[in-house]
Amino acid sequence: GNHDSVAVLEESRELLACLNCRVIPGVEADPSQHVILLQDRQQQPAAVVCAIPYIRPRDVMTSQAGQSGAEKRISLQQAISTHYQAVFEQAEQRRRQLDIDVPIIATGHLMTVGASSSDSVRDLYIGTLDAFPANAFPPADYIALGHIHRPQVVAKSGHIRYSGSPIPLSFDELGQAKSVVMVDFDAAKVSKIKLLEVPVFQPMQQIKGDLEQIEATLETLRDASETIWLDIEVSSQDYLNDLQRRIDHLTADLPVEVLLLRRARRERHAIESVHKETLNELSVFDVFERRLAQENFESEAQQARLLRIQQSFSNVVEELKQVSPE
For the segment 196-243, what is each residue's pLDDT rounded down to a tens digit? Predict the structure, then answer.
C-alpha cells in the first residue's frame, strides 16, 4: 500500500486476489498477515515476503501528552522498527517451517536517512519523523523500498534499495534514467543485482526563458512525431497578466501539451509586492505558509505553537487526501 487511502486500497483487495495479486493496504494487528510466501513456476517456495505498506503513526503508536518533538520522533521510529521486527520474526518462523533456504524480502514505503527525493515526493511524517535509519530495519536478505522516485542504494547497502518510479512523476526527474531492479538469489543470498532501464514512452521537456526565447524553442518542436508534455518557465520583469493566453497562442498548432506554466521564481518574488500570485501557482501548503507569515512566532513558546499548527494542518491535509485522493 502507498500512503493513499487505506479504504480505497482495501476495496481492490478481493478483486486483485482473483488475479493472483495480494494487497496489504495498512498495518494488520496480526504481524503474520504481512507475511506472504512466493512460489516459482514449479509451485515451489521461492521467497518469503514481509509485505509492509506505508505505516500511519496512529496504527503503531498512541500520542502521549507533553511529549516534545524529539520524543515523538524517537517514539515513532521505535514503533516502526518494532513492527518491522515483529513481521520479520514471523517470516523467519515461516522459513524454518519450510525447511528451505529461501530469501526473506521486506518492503517499505518511507523516507530513509540520506535518501535524495524530487519535487513530486510528499512529506510523510511532517513534524514527527524526518527519516528512518537503515540500521533500524531487520536483517532481511533484500529490502525493496518505495516513496522516493530516484533509484538509489540506501546507506551504501546494496541490498536496501529504492527502485524509483518507473516513469517521471515531475519535470525535475527528466534527467534520471528510470529503471526496475532485477535481483538474483543464490539460495537466500543476493548473488546479482541488475538495473533494467525503462524506455521513455512519453516525451517531456522543460523550456525556460523570456517569451521570445520560448517561442524560438517551441518552433524547434513543430516536426515532433509524438506529443510532448511541457513545463514552461517564463522569465520576465513584467507581470504579463495574459501569459496563459500568449502561451496558448504560441502552442496552438504544435504537437505539444503544456502541463505546467509558471513564472521564474525570482520574477515571482519581484512582483509579489505589487501583484497577487494566482492559486494555480501555489500549493495548499504555500497558501497556508503565506497566512502563517502574517503572524508573530518569535518566542520559543510561539515557535512550539507554530510547529503544532503546521503538524495539525499537515495531518488534516493527509486525512482529506485519504478521503478523496483526487
Answer: 999 999 999 999 999 999 999 999 999 999 999 999 999 876 666 788
All residues at 6 or more sequence positions from 301 whose CB lies less than 8 Å from its CB, including other chains: none
Q: What is the edge-to-edge ordering of all strands in the sheet holding 228-234?
A: 204-209, 228-234, 256-263
The one-letter code for the residue type at 20 is: N
- Residue 266: HSE in the Cβ half-sphere, 13 Å Cα cutoff: 5
- Which pLDDT does position 284 carry in this prediction? 86
Class at the top of the CATH hierarchy for domain 6-197 = alpha beta
More confident residue, 124 or 253: 253
d(CA 313, CA 309): 6
DSSP H stretches of helix in 133-276: 211-219, 243-251, 265-272
Domain 204-323 falls in which CATH fold?
A: Double Stranded RNA Binding Domain (3.30.160)
Q: Cα dist. 196→39, 188, 193, 204, 206 in Å? A: 23, 22, 10, 21, 25
One-letter amino acid of 324: S
Q: What cell numbers appear for 326 in the block?
A: 483526487
CA–CA separation, 145 and 56 (whole Å): 16
Domain boundaries of the chain, sorted by first residue: 6-197, 204-323
Tell me if 75 sits within 8 A of 67, measured CB to CB. yes
Is residue 52 within 8 Å of 84, Cβ to Cβ?
Answer: yes
Q: Is 190 left (phi over 0), alpha (psi -120 to 50) or beta?
A: beta
Count of CB atoms within 10 A of residue 168's CB?
Answer: 20
Joined grid coordinates for residue 240: 504579463
